[in-house]
Amino acid sequence: MAEDRRSLIRWLLGGGFTASVISFLYPAIRFMNPPRIPEAAVNEVSAGRADQLKPNSSTIVRFGNRPVLLIRVAEDEWKAFGAVCTHLNCTVQYRPDGHDIWCACHNGIYDLNGRVVAGPPPRPLEEYAVRIRDGEVVIARRV
Amino acid sequence: MLSAATRRRAANWLDERLGVSAVREFLRHKTVPLHSATIWYYFGGITLFLFVIQVLTGILLLLYYRPTPAEAFESVQFIMTRVEFGWLVRSIHSWAANLMILTAFIHMFSVVFLHAYRRPRELTWLSGIVLLALALAFGFSGYLLPWNEVAYFATKVGADMVASLPGIGPPLARFLRGGEEVGGATLTRFFGFHVAVLPAITTLVLLFHLALVQKHGISVPPKLEAESRRRGLPIPQMPFFPNFFLRELMAWYAALGVLGSLAAIFPWELGVKADPFAPAPAGIRPEWYFLALFYTLKLLPSHVWIIEGELLGLIGFALLAVFWALLPFWATNRQGEIRTRLVTGAGVALLAYLSTFSALGYWR
Ligand code: FES
Questions:
Q1: Are residues A52 and A27 in the same domain?
Q2: What angle do CA B88, B81, B149 make, to 5 degrees?
Q3: Can you give the residue range of the structural domain that contains A24?
Q4: Which atom of ligand 1 has the smallest separation from the CA of A92?
Q5: Of the partner residues A33, A105, A120, the one whose CB lies closest to the CB of residue B301
Q6: Domain with A62 in it: what CATH number?
Q7: Per-residue pLDDT tens for A69-93?
Q8: Do B252 and B49 meet the contact criterion of CB atoms below 8 Å apart?
Q9: B196: which chain A residues are within 8 Å (Cβ-Cβ)?
């Protein structure tokens, strides 16, 4: 009888203690999880005047909160890609002498269609549409 | 000048309250084995010393450092250009961090090659491995704090590696970054880890590690032990206090000399402020102690069979780390004997891999 009562008490104390610890930890753990900040849906951005970028050169344009690599391949050939390397997230750059896109982090190389030519990246770069509207470059998400 | 009697009385008064004589008694009996490899016994102490330097210089840097993307870089620049001896304090903090990781590695490999991990020191080894992991976490989090270009991309890559782990990867990466991308939230978090979370955990694990070292005393290589048993001669010992202690002190002075000269002759660079909208600069690479991992990732093709190369590399590294951490357990056979050849072989192989890949990662 006394044994039973003792084990019941032990159980209650232990259970209460565990429950209280969980109730302390739960909010702390939730607190550590950063809240999701909704991204403003951007569908197109202006990248300035077309004559600001010489043929065979590039620039990085803010597209919402991500970088997009805009390349003026030739006089009227434009390309735009998400500048985030598909390997481990570095920002890529256009190489005018090689006519390719290079990621300095682990030597990943993409061609001007965004396809992986060499190095570790597993997937092609995301391509964006480029239009020239009254001498202004407009980059848009592809649908 | 106090008379001898007064001093004795004061000492007794303190002893009654603090129990100093027990400590003195303990120190009198503590000895350190004396043999041709005794020199390796100093490296644990040097690592500890460098850790203390990190704490002290870290506290100094806290007086001026500001953990926001708008101010971090400028505040470090301010420390280095305007604050008196600021360049020196910051340079010492960076150099000592690197030297500490170096001496921790030397300490670890000397434990391996002298077979000091063996029973009953398995937990000493494991706590040492945890300390090494903590040191690397200190390095990784501290690297970002100046908010320069190289650190920004190194952190992006590191966080994305975490994200690529199956299952726990994405939530863990969100936790580390404080969001979906490396940015201000990451800087604030890393700062908190670097100056509060990691120091607290490290202090606890360090005390545990040191307590175990005290409890078990210093290990003697099995070969010497066997030889002394065969000859029936005890292994020569030197008293810990003052003999070993004074030598350790000399080693600390030597470490301080090396540290001071490196910090003064090669002040640690600050680089260019991070810009999330600039491409990763050419020649980008992480701190030297991540170079082997970095170079391995660089070599791996995008896909190996159906697995992505980076994932394969990470799994490989994780398995290697677990295998290494469990060393004391696979090092003994059923009869309880140490497989010295196997352990030495594994140690040499790991050392060779780490050094060649780090060198290749540095020069290529
Ligand atoms: S992040 Fe671009 S190649 Fe690794």
A1: no
A2: 90
A3: 1-35
A4: 2
A5: A120
A6: 2.102.10.10
A7: 999 998 889 999 999 999 999 999 9
A8: yes
A9: none
A33 contacts B174? CB cut-off 8 A: yes
Tally of domains in chain A: 2
Structural domains for chain B:
34-274 (1.20.810.10)
Residue A77 in tokens: 């050939």
User: Is there a single domain that holds both residue A23 and residue A90?
Assistant: no
- Do A8 and A58 share a domain, yes or no? no
The label of the residue with tokens 């030739």 reads A74
A83 and A103 part of one domain: yes
Q: Test A88 with B161 for CB contact under 8 angstroms.
A: yes
Contacting residues of A for B157, CB less than 8 Å apart: 88-90, 105
Are the beta carbons of B301 and A121 separated by less than 8 Å?
A: no
Same domain, A13 and A83: no
Burial class (CB in 10 A: 0-12, 13-18, 19+), B47: buried
The reply to whether A72 and A107 lie within a common domain is: yes
Out of A69, A81, A90, mutate this one to test ligand 1's pocket (max ligand atoms within 8 Å of CB): namely: A90
**Residues A97-129: tens digit of each pLDDT:** 999 999 999 999 999 999 999 988 999 999 999
| Contact check, Cβ <8 Å, A34/B283 | no
Low-confidence ranges of chain B (pLDDT < 50): none
Q: Which residues line ligand 1 (CB under 6 A)?
A: A 85, 87-90, 103, 105-106, 108, 119-121; B 157
Instruction: In whole angstroms, give the CA distance from residue B196 to residue B203.
Output: 11
At B1 the pLDDT is: 66
Say what the pTM is.
Answer: 0.90
- The pLDDT score that the predictor gives to residue A1 is 67
Q: Are residues A22 and A82 in the same domain?
A: no
Burial of A134 (0-12, 13-18, 19+ CB in 10 A): exposed
Question: ipTM of this predicted complex?
Answer: 0.82
Q: Are residues A122 and A59 in the same domain?
A: yes
Please give the structure tokens belonging to residue B348. Answer: 């040499």
Residue A43: band (very low, low, confident or very high) from pLDDT cuts 50, 70, 90: confident
